[in-house]
Amino acid sequence: MMAVPPQYVEVLIIGGGPAGSYAASVLSREGLDVAVLESCKFPRYHIGESLIPSVRPYLRFIGAEEKVAEYGFMRKPGSAIKFNQFKREGYTDFVALGADNNAWNVTRSEFDQLLLNHAQDCGAKVFEETKATSITFDEKDKERPIAVSWARTVTNDSNASKTGAQSKTVTGSITFTHLIDASGRAGLLSTKYLKNRHFNASLKNIAIWGYWHARECSRNDECEASGDTPTSHKYEDSTTCFGMYGKGTSRQGAPWFEALTDESGWAWFIPLHNGKTSVGIVMNQARYNAQTQSRSSSSETPQNESSLVSRYLSNLPLAPGLMRLLCGKDASSSGNSGLGHDMKIPEGEEHLHMRAVLEQGSVRSASDFSYSAPSYAGKGYRIAGDAGAFIDPFFSSGIHLAFTGALSAAASICASRRGDCTESEAAIWHTKRVAVSYTRFQVVVLSAYKQMRAQTADVLSDVDEDNFDKAFTFLRPVIQGASDMGSRLSESELQRSLDFCINLFNPTSPDEHKAVEEELASLDRHKGLIDVAAPLVDPKTFEDVLKVRPAHCDSKRSFDTRADSGDLVAENKSRMVLDKINARRLVHPEYAINNLEAEELQGYAVRLEQGRLGLVQVA
């Protein structure tokens, strides 16, 4: 690590998290002089452990995929989501599209350091424990940043904490041609200078989470009685007495997501490679505040526990499947998941059956984390990752959007420098690229919350119409039908869009997808209906294919699997499969980095070629 930043660099990046590290790697590989100012000393803690498969092509583009794949992170073959306690979970199988299409559950301190180290390997200058304190703008052009002031505490003794050696604060300033703000939620440019951050009222939630590990057991322990093999709980086998969704099957390692029974939010259960499991609750902020006030007035909080830990533990039973996992059982109470034997745990007695231990001091919380902005770029600067926008932990889109924004920032900077377009055009393109990707995931997340909360909330004020139009170009004609296409986006149309997107979480299994594929193949027709990369299909087409009356398009719809007719059950399951594939097509473009080359925005697309990265005009 270099002790002091240089006085000038071509591109300065504030923040060494995933967005900053990724942008630094890309631009360094393009031959630019890049410096990263990171306020922390890595490794440092960060939440957000679950990745989606789209990160693989992004990592491949900077030459880091193999490093991540070989590191030893928990393999994530898919994800399980349970919205209804009376039905089985839905499972999305990532590896169905290819054996190497898995993602990972990562310990972010290690994953982020790997990325930052890779940026250095690519040639970027990295300065840890160096905080960007302020930004100076051009006196003649008030919108263009030209310098960043920084501060760093240094000491001449590496064992200063033990020896009591004196330390001092060193300050300085660095100028640049371009600036990328990847400073995370702090969002230096957005919050301190542009002051344009918009918080999503429809996603005003609070997240509380902690880390669990298997308790020690012996051969005289109940785990032997239940058929488990006692273990000393080394990292590689720490789940022997600790639940894991799909343990011993092709689904092992997949996170478990579950709607809370009081319809206030959802829970996550994410196994990690270091023997720990990340377990969290996301609740409506107003509901949580009312709950906290009620418990405070009734003096329910034990005196020997912190109020945060107490509230965390008291809310976990709202996710019965998650509690069963903490008790070493199958997540499914009905046993219809096909993943093994389950014993129902009496309500209120979950703590008596716990095989997991909450790591002391690991419980944390966060709120006001869903936000966006009308602009993510300007003259000489770009904003990427959480510094500009974040949706919600649901759907695990954070790292994907960080990489997308970082590559967009890098491509637009290269385009401006190489004369592909003007700096103004490059900045506008970056804003649109970030906004469109954000909107795709935002609408999917909103649809999930509509299902979980079993109610309709006004969301139009949180969704930008222009970005919606571009993100869902092919959906509006399907939703609007024969109505005029020139009308503005309405709340009613947006709600119908959410109802369409919720099909993405249909409770289907890989076996059912395979059965539908085989059925269509035997009929030698409509094979494209099961191709997630195919164009969006009008759902009316399914009526002819399946000869089944379409289910009412409503987020509370229910396919009755107890129907007397076996044919009707099969048709309904097939319909759910086709509807799920159709909904996945809305976000599928985000899963391939080449989409940046194919999707035209503001008249430009990315020239995704190392050494010539930039933008190309699309006729």
Automatic annotation (TrEMBL):
The keyword Lipid biosynthesis does not apply. This is FAD binding domain-containing protein. SUPFAM superfamilies: FAD/NAD(P)-binding domain (SSF51905). The lineage of its organism: Eukaryota, Fungi, Dikarya, Basidiomycota, Agaricomycotina. The keyword Flavoprotein applies. InterPro entries: FAD-bd, FAD/NAD-bd_sf, Flavin-dep_Halogenase_NPB. PANTHER family: FAD-BINDING DOMAIN-CONTAINING PROTEIN (PTHR43747:SF5), FAD-BINDING PROTEIN (PTHR43747). GO terms for molecular function: FAD binding; flavin-dependent halogenase activity. Keywords: FAD, Flavoprotein, Oxidoreductase.
